[in-house]
Design a protein that fits this description.
Layout: H1 2-20, H2 24-35, H3 40-51, H4 57-65, H5 71-93, H6 97-117
Helix pairs in contact: 1-2, 2-3
Length: about 120
């Protein structure tokens, strides 16, 4: 049954990723924790491992084909992500799982509030 859940999580994350540019942190990590009962750090590591290959390549190509991509920005973002993921993992693994989970929840609430009421 876990295989079905994993394929469904990947499909939903892929659809939402293509629609909104989200996936790992917003869809995959919570789904692994709540549906498959994974531990916080295990879910984070598993999500990163799934996202390392160019899983967004087809979606990105579609946006590129339709003139909706700034390649210079994308390259600079990728460079920042490359370094940032390393430091983010170091910082998070230094926290307790409960603290990491709470920090993530606070982040999501702040992003949601900004999206709802911000400009």
């Amino acid at each position: 049954m876990d295989y079905v859940y994993l394929l469904a999580i990947g499909l939903v994350a892929g659809i939402l990723g293509g629609m909104f540019g989200i996936g790992g942190g917003l869809v995959i990590v919570p789904a692994l924790i709540f549906l498959l009962k994974m531990k916080q750090f295990d879910a984070l590591g598993t999500s990163l491992a799934a996202l390392i290959p160019p899983v967004g390549l087809l979606g990105a190509f579609e946006y590129y084909q339709n003139g909706h991509m700034n390649m210079k920005y994308a390259i600079l973002l990728a460079a920042g992500l490359f370094i940032g993921f390393y430091f983010g993992a170091k910082i998070t693994l230094g926290l307790s799982p409960d603290t990491a989970r709470r920090a993530y929840a606070i982040f999501l609430v702040l992003v949601a509030a900004r999206m709802l009421w911000g400009k």
